[in-house]
Amino acid sequence: MEEEKKENEPQQVSRPSDMCHIPIKVIDAVDGDEPIVIRDKDLVKYIGPLARAVGAYNPNWEEHAIDVLPVKIPFKKEHVLFMFDTVRKYQQPTNETRVEIDYPETVDKDLDFLKDIMTLCQYCECDTLHGAIAYVAAQRLNNIDDVKVIADYFGFECDPNQSILDAKDGWMKVDYPE
User: What's the domain of life for this entry (predicted)?
Assistant: First the structure.
């Protein structure tokens, strides 16, 4: 009788402690699309909300296998994949940085894409990547002479004839929308 009971019980499946399976659902996924799957525990450490979510499910997730239900990240797949690919590579420039910093994955990305990546980085608490992408965006904006284009990028109203540089203290004065 005891042997029959053991046969009907679910069996414990042994998994290697380094196993990681975290499906990520994105906003532009179509029904039937496979989610992005994170299989690297080290990547999880770089994404604050994801690490906390996995930690709530299993506090010892760094030592044990991770296999959780899909996690939603409300951004486009292209942006999420870019973040996953670059979050460990890019370092934020410092004031001591005097050389040209190379971020090759950003070369063909436009300012709107970079802005979306910065928003995603804020959402995922990837501060170092956020700083690196902000640096790239600032370098691109540095090369734009039309103040209207820059104001539009930041979402400000701008009168190109208005002087925004205060001659007394040298600071720029911007009227923020209320």
Answer: Eukaryota
Q: DSSP letter at 74?
A: -
Q: Which helix (H) or strand (E) holds 72?
A: strand 71-73
**Cβ contacts of 126 within 8 Å, gap of 6 or more:** 46, 47, 48, 83, 87, 120
Indicate if the pLDDT at residue 85 is higher than 50: yes
Name residue, tokens 């923020």. Answer: 176
- Residue identified by tokens 């300012």 is 111
Cβ atoms of 52 and 45 within 8 Å: the answer is: no
Q: Which residue has the higher pLDDT, 95 or 14?
A: 95
Which of 84, 67, 83, 146 is closest to 116 using CA atoms?
Answer: 83
Domain of residue 69: give its range: 15-74
Helix (H, G, I), strand (E, B) or coil at 127: helix
Q: Are 104 and 58 in contact (CB under 8 A)?
A: no
- Which residues contact residue 25 at a Cβ distance below 8 angstroms, ignoring those fewer than 6 apart? 35, 70, 71, 72, 73
44 lies in some domain: yes
pLDDT score of 177: 58
Residue 23 lies in a domain: yes
> Number of folded domains in the chain?
1
For residue 172, being part of any structural domain is answered with no
